């Protein structure tokens, strides 16, 4: 039986930063007449060290966003809410231009501007591997929120928060590991892996 490292790759890492930078000063694709006011590939004002611990490895992250439950209105496939104040965090990194549009929409709607896109300057393959080894912490959180009081609330926004947590669990189970192996290669080599190249292991 082949080990994961023996399986030929079927996808490569896509860098969302050029798309993000190209949007600055131009009409946002998801708004009518609204210009992108900020380069969301830069650092978040409070800094990478203040990022929400639930944010998955990758270029984008959040710190202390507002709690108005707007992020998932723009980016339900990238953004979820933490349970104490309903602040936003990135549970899935964008892998195509349309998802960059959605995530930057969420960032533009946050009055605190608490989104950053300089994660590549801070993550290392070793830190990615460490995050993966510790993923049970975020899984336990997501299961509690996804199937707890928010899930049975009569408030639609809280039900949506629970849905985001459940989507995070699904991403942990299918898709995130492959993404992180691609991302770790990108960090180590400064380029996407070619078809057939071996990817870094994440560990158990």
Secondary structure: elements and pairs:
Blueprint: H1 17-22, E1 61-62, H2 71-74, E2 79-81, E3 88-90, H3 97-109, E4 115-116, H4 125-133, H5 135-146, H6 149-152, H7 156-173, H8 176-189
Antiparallel strand pairs: 1-4, 2-3
Helix pairs in contact: 4-8, 5-7
Figure out the total of helices. 8
Helix- and strand-based class? mainly alpha
Number of strands: 4
Largest β-sheet summary: 2 strands, antiparallel
In percent, how much strand structure appears in the residues?
under 5%
Pick out the low-confidence regions.
1-9
Please compute the radius of gyration using only Cα atoms: 17 Å
Instruction: Give the number of domains.
Output: 1
N→C terminal distance: 17 Å
Mean pLDDT: 91
What overall geometry do the principal axes of the alpha carbons give?
Answer: globular
Question: Care to describe what's here?
Answer:
This protein has 204 residues and is mainly alpha-helical. It contains eight helices and four strands. Helix 4 runs antiparallel to helix 8 and helix 5 runs antiparallel to helix 7. The radius of gyration is 17 Å and the shape is globular. The N terminus is likely disordered.
